[in-house]
Amino acid sequence: MPQYDYDLFVIGGGSGGVRASRVAAAHGATVAIAEEYRVGGTCVIRGCVPKKLLVYGAHFAEDLHDARRFGWNVPDCDFDWSVLRDNVLGEVDRLNKAYTETLESHDVEVILERATIAGPHEVTLASGRTVTAKFILIATGATPHVPSCPGHEHGITSNEAFHLDAIPKRILIAGAGYIANEFAGIFNEFGAKVTLINRSDVILRGYDHSIRDRLLQISTMKGIEFRFNADFRGITKNEDGSLTVEMTGHDPITVDCVMFATGRVPNTGDLGLENAGVEWDAKGAIVVDDDSRSTCPSIYAVGDVTNRMQLTPVAIREGQAFADTVFGNKPTRVDYENVPSAVFSHPPMAGVGMTESRARETIGSIAVYTSDFRAMKNVLAGRNERALYKMICDAETGRVVGLHMIGPDAPEILQAAAVAVKAGLTKDAFDQTVALHPSMAEELVLMK
Ligand code: NDP
């Protein structure tokens, strides 16, 4: 008789958990996965995927406008939020089903219940059933952080943004990171008056300063208002349903909706970690080693719950590496160097490697090349919006250590260029490549 009910019990059916379950099962393990909400997790259900679809939807506002300059007789168009919302939610349903089917076709048992840790090899399900497993993987992700100011319950987070009954006329977004800037662009294109407030005086801390300054400039030009050094004091609900927000350093503002985009916190509350000696850090993230193993030898954790890099493709790699190492006899570790990332703002930005300031701190002697240009399409459209590409090189070796860009299709272009950066290529290698003309990407090999 086997000693445990399963070889692997996974808690959390998001990107990391699904990949780990599927691969472990393919390596021959008996696997069950518990999910308390919907299989697919943040990325598929209420993150990257529906957000990107909203970004596409929002872009039509500019495309329809610009089309007239390209000779199209475009009548005045209306936007019906409920059509886009329902179509996006329909796509989410389709993906949720596809993810569940993939798990089942790999003989992974899907248990739609909340699960908590009862011991090093024991999990308790919400129904009261206790199951045992040789290994447990925690992949419970993260959840939006909401500041604890008076009236915070009147605000929403990105979770609710996908289900709104209507696009608010005026929205205040708190935070100036990924989610805030992406949704600022989306709501602005849909016609809302957007005000973004942040506790500090920067947007997108961690991105290259020239690129984020350009986003700030273009966003302001598009009508998004920014207020910095503004800490939440409180939200009051008025009789007409509007919300008045008080903040430090600025006048109060009355809006129809407040959205918090002030970071995400690991989902470790009431998970029973203490029952197995699994330690967590000050932010609530599970402490793991390079193999994603927690302080309990039979329990591992991957993805946002470990707060290493809150990115879907990273969680997927962590899940894959865990399954290959523990069940596939193929020890694998995730390489966190030169991970590309993007912000799907309007226009989008993307980057890989070190920012200019980070490179100056770590390397010292660097060479910086830029290309500051107006995309051909924007010129004909009369859109005064400049793209900016920036390449940072080690001055001694010429090796490209960072590449950052903002402009149309920046994420699509950067993904390909990231291969070159990851491969350790030099500025010379870029320069030796003949430009593909006319394209925006050709600026990559023409930087001065
Ligand atoms: P970010 O970490 O990007 O930004 C958080 C913002 O909220 C910052 O502006 C920060 O201010 C502010 N903030 C943080 N804590 C508080 C607080 N206690 N009170 C008030 N303001 C606060 O978080 P997001 O919520 O935008 O996104 C979470 C994560 O999800 C991202 O880090 C990213 O990894 C991932 N994500 C990735 C996407 C992508 O790949 N395109 C898209 C969306 C999310 P300050 O400037 O002072 O730091």
UniProtKB/TrEMBL annotation:
The record's cofactor note says: Binds 1 FAD per subunit.
Superkingdom in the source lineage: Bacteria
Give any single GO term for biological process.
cell redox homeostasis
Which residues are named in the active-site annotation?
Answer: 437 (proton acceptor)
SUPFAM superfamilies given in the database record: FAD/NAD(P)-binding domain (SSF51905), FAD/NAD-linked reductases, dimerisation (C-terminal) domain (SSF55424)
Q: Which keywords, in A-to-Z order, does the entry hold?
A: Disulfide bond, FAD, Flavoprotein, NAD, Nucleotide-binding, Oxidoreductase, Redox-active center
Any single GO CC term annotated in Swiss-Prot or TrEMBL for this entry: cytosol
The record, for Pfam families, names: Pyr_redox_2 (PF07992), Pyr_redox_dim (PF02852)
- List, for all copies, the residue spans of the domain called Pyridine nucleotide-disulphide oxidoreductase dimerisation: 339-446
- Report the GO molecular function annotations: flavin adenine dinucleotide binding; glutathione-disulfide reductase (NADPH) activity
Q: List the disulfide bonds.
A: 43-48
Q: Which residues bind NAD(+)?
A: 175-182, 263
Which residues are in the FAD/NAD(P)-binding domain? Answer: 6-319
Q: Which PANTHER family match?
A: GLUTATHIONE REDUCTASE
Give the family, as the similarity comment puts it: Belongs to the class-I pyridine nucleotide-disulfide oxidoreductase family.
Q: What is this protein called?
A: NADPH-glutathione reductase
